[in-house]
Design goal:
The chain has 242 residues and is α/β, with parallel strands linked by helices. It is 47% helix and 15% strand. The strands form 3 sheets. The chain has a 5-stranded parallel beta sheet with strand order 4-8-7-6-5. The two termini are 30 Å apart.
């Protein structure tokens, strides 16, 4: 269970397993309970099937592990899945299809904000795959945990990740690095960004960092503009009154 220590807008600084969140979660695959994987853009019937099977499988597992929130592109199915898993005692959740969500700003906002509105504040959301310049925005929306799969994926295809940009080293030969060195660099980049985000939350300046990083990505900037235009009630709910 996540213990929240501080808010900066919807972003949360907390404690999970003696680690300060937002945190880079390093875990073995067996720590994630079995689910029913489903692509993002599928008919509702298939998405609903994945939710039902995921809930059934979760009933037989240890609720101290990570449960997966399925539901594809349907926010109401994601809510159904999350609520059912919480009733089973789960408090740590992986958001399925993360690589698809970051390509679709409106869907990203709709699903993450819908989940945050209905789930327990002590439930942690894990977003295993993202571009680094999305991390401040995702934290601002209420994501607590991030993973190394994106760092390792980009390393395998020879891409160096930085807070603002991804660089294909064949096209931009900034360094002469082997895949293992690229992986280590990319993991350190994620670690740096999360340290940076935590420092900004403590100082109440995360929104400044969000705006700065969103300027480096058309998708992230679109998401921020939609957030401000259409989800003011969500942001105001976490705004401090002086």
């Amino acid at each position: 269970m996540l213990e929240i220590k501080l808010h900066d807008g919807p972003a949360r600084l907390g404690k999970y397993l003696n680690n300060t969140t937002p945190y880079l979660l390093k875990l073995e695959p067996e720590f994630i309970i079995p689910d029913e994987p489903m692509p993002y853009d599928v008919p509702r019937e298939l998405a609903s099937y994945a939710v039902c099977k995921t809930i059934e499988k979760a009933k037989e597992e240890d609720n101290n592990k990570i449960a997966v929130i399925q539901g594809s592109k349907y926010a109401d199915l994601r809510i159904k899945c999350a609520n059912s898993l919480e009733k089973l005692g789960y408090r740590l959740f992986l958001v399925a299809n993360p690589e698809e969500l970051i390509k679709r700003p409106r869907d990203l906002l709709d699903i993450i904000i819908s989940l945050r509105k209905v789930m327990s504040p002590n439930s942690a959301l894990y977003f295993p795959f993202t571009k680094l310049n999305f991390i401040p925005l995702l934290v601002y929306l209420g994501i607590d945990l991030f993973g190394v799969p994106s760092a390792d994926y980009y390393a395998r295809i020879g891409v160096l990740t930085t807070p603002n940009h991804n660089y294909d080293l064949k096209k931009y030969p900034l360094y002469d690095l082997n895949p293992e060195e690229i992986k280590n660099y990319n993991r350190k980049s994620i670690d740096f960004i999360l340290r940076e985000v935590r420092a900004h939350i403590k100082n109440g300046t995360l929104r400044n960092l969000v705006e700065e990083r969103c300027c480096t990505s058309p998708e992230a900037m679109s998401a921020l503009r939609i957030l401000d235009r259409d989800y003011g009630d969500f942001l105001e709910g976490y705004t401090q009154l002086y």
